[in-house]
Amino acid sequence: MKEKTTQDRVVLITGAGKGIGRAVVEALARRAEVAGSPLALCLSARTRSDLETLKTRLDSSTVRCEVVAGDLADAPTQPVEACLARFGRIDALIHCAGVGRFKDFLDQTALDLEFTLKTNVTATFLLLQRVYAVMRAQAP
Ligand SMILES: NC(=O)c1ccc[n+]([C@@H]2O[C@H](COP(=O)([O-])OP(=O)(O)OC[C@H]3O[C@@H](n4cnc5c(N)ncnc54)[C@H](OP(=O)(O)O)[C@@H]3O)[C@@H](O)[C@H]2O)c1
Questions:
Q1: Is residue 1 situated within a structural domain?
Q2: How many domains does the chain have?
Q3: Is 8 exposed, middle or buried (0-12, 13-18, 19+ CB in 10 A)?
Q4: Which of 11, 69, 77, 107 is the most exposed place for a label (fewest CB within 10 A)?
Q5: Cβ(88) to ligand 1 under 6 A?
Q6: Residue 15 alpha carbon to ligand 1 centre in Å
Q7: Is any ligand 1 atom within 6 A of the Cβ of residue 76?
Q8: For residue 8, what are the contacts with CB-CB under 8 A and spacing of at least 6?
């Protein structure tokens, strides 16, 4: 079976600065470099320095990175608008941003719950809703 390539793809990755998101970004960039297939990556997370470090490392004639620093809990669709402004489309979303306040059940407060739900649930819903609208509008 022929392997799919990353050619001409624009990928938005949330949580790109650390952990799973960063590992996915690195794997996608590596694959694009090996295949020589142009790839545009829109890197989103709260910590700008994490994203700038990745961009500095990965930017090449094959891989182009855009950095979007911001809190999804405050502005869930900001990375989508930034990606569209820079690259004009979104072919794939890899949504890895997420938080967890891991405490004993009895120590969890309403604020802990609200903090987690705002990022992991509300922002996820609004982000996916916006990306779906963009992808539907892009469909031939
Ligand atoms: N790693 C695992 O084995 C595992 C297993 C099951 C589930 N999960 C869940 O999967 C998600 C990712 O895990 P991970 O290990 O990759 O976590 P991680 O290393 O903490 O990375 C999370 C990434 O998401 C970003 N982020 C978090 N909250 C954000 C927000 N409100 N707005 C924008 N960016 C935000 C972080 O940015 P900043 O650091 O800049 O804030 C960071 O780049 C988490 O929800 C985690 O609970 C992980």
A1: no
A2: 1
A3: exposed
A4: 107
A5: no
A6: 6
A7: no
A8: 37, 38
